[in-house]
Amino acid sequence: MWSPEREAEVPTGGDPAGLLPPEWEDDEERMSFLFSAFKRSREVNSTDWDSKMGFWAPLVLSHSRRQGVVRLRLRDLQEAFQRKGSVPLGLATVLQDLLRRGELQRESDFMASVDSSWISWGVGVFLLKPLKWTLSNVLGDNKVPAEEVLVAVGLLKEKAEEVYRLYQNSPLSSHPVVALSELSTLCANCCPDERTFYLVLLQLQKEKRVTVLEQNGEKIVKFARGPHAKVSPVNDVDVGVYQLMQSEQLLSRKVESLSQEAERCKEEARRACRAGKKQLALRSLKAKQRTEKRIEALHAKLDTVQGILDRIYASQTDQMVFNAYQAGVGALKLSMKDVTVEKAESLVDQIQELCDTQDEVSQTLAGGVTNGLDFDSEELEKELDVLLQDTTKEPLDLPDNPHEMLYTNSVPNPRVPDAELEAELEKLSLSEGGLIPSSKSPKRQLEPTL
């Protein structure tokens, strides 16, 4: 465990193989230029200045991200970027430029930007800076000392978000107040050292997502309820719930310890009985019974504490549901602000009227144009039936001999009745010879003359 009496060292180590730029190993001329110092001013040669800065600034930030450390020192970076026994001579200028752009921040300046309530317990956490750093800042010297700690702002914000997410997904989130020691254990993989852990908490404090309070010599952390909510100050209810949680843990540990003691007394009684030591076995059994009675009493207390905590958690859930209902009612009122039953009925009537109008228009268009004549469909049907009946009753007048329909011209040949023909024949016979026609004489069909 870190203590104010000793300062944790910033993690060091060379850059992993394969993560450096490709020219690092092969391009000697290029690397010799990059390892040289910057000119005193950018105005001397802006091209060379921008080329070096464009190489080293992203490399420093990516190195910090790969190592997972938010705290950087010039000395550690010089060791990490050694090449064939040479160190980059312009890293101090690169760090100054990153400080100017806000991508890095002095650790002391970052601490000073946090709310005073956090600093009240955290002053002793970080050792005071050496006097020469303070004097250099007062005198306006912007040089970065080799031992001064700088904070990678972007990576620190990412780690703060990760810590908050870890808490939200852990059983500790059942209540917003948690012990600092428990939170530190939860974030052991995310924060490689305790100073990084404290910086992350400072960042969360700066974002108004946590607040820290010291209670009975122990530091407790209160988280905001939602990812976009602001944390509220620690109140008496939070302290009371935290004390109940601590009591529950203490009783649970005590019950577990007494259970092990009862089991040990039972084993001692068994061994004494096997050895024939009856009195010793009885004493062990009596000790076991006393221990079990203590366990029962502790279980009763533990059940009481857990029941109170369950009611508190249920009330918090009820409060969240109540707030959600309130928000829902407010949103519903806002959305139904201009909607009334009368307006809804009027709208439905208008829709029905438009639908009826559309049906009438469709029927009118389907009737077609009648040119001003109005025909009764029933009368037309009756007349058609009469015509059909007449057609079926009258036989078709077809000729017996197809040759009779052949004429020498287009004038039709009128049909003469047989009685008229016989009368005319009889007249001709009398006029020619006075012959009396016999009833038995054969009849001769006369061809009509045209």
From TrEMBL:
Question: What GO CC annotations are associated with the protein?
Answer: amphisome membrane; chromatin; cytoplasmic side of plasma membrane; cytosol; ESCRT III complex; kinetochore; kinetochore microtubule; lysosomal membrane
Q: Does the keyword section mention Transcription?
A: no
From the record, what ranges are coiled-coil? 248-275
Q: Which domain of life is it from?
A: Eukaryota
Nucleus as a keyword? yes
Annotated CHMP7 winged helix domain residues: 156-224
Sorted UniProt keywords = Coiled coil, Cytoplasm, Nucleus, Protein transport, Transport
Cited InterPro entries: CHMP7_WHD (IPR057471), Snf7_fam (IPR005024)
Question: What is a biological process (GO) this protein takes part in?
Answer: autophagosome maturation
> Where does this one sit in the cell?
Cytoplasm; Nucleus envelope
The record's section on Pfam families has: Snf7, WHD_CHMP7, WHD_CHMP7_1st
Describe its partners and assembly state: Interacts with CHMP4B, but not with VPS25. Interacts with LEMD2 (via C-terminus).
Q: Which family does it belong to?
A: Belongs to the SNF7 family.
Q: Which PANTHER family match?
A: CHARGED MULTIVESICULAR BODY PROTEIN, CHARGED MULTIVESICULAR BODY PROTEIN 7
Q: What does this protein do?
A: ESCRT-III-like protein required to recruit the ESCRT-III complex to the nuclear envelope (NE) during late anaphase. Together with SPAST, the ESCRT-III complex promotes NE sealing and mitotic spindle disassembly during late anaphase. Recruited to the reforming NE during anaphase by LEMD2. Plays a role in the endosomal sorting pathway.
Name the record gives this protein = Charged multivesicular body protein 7
Biological source species? Jaculus jaculus (Lesser Egyptian jerboa)
**GN (gene name):** Chmp7
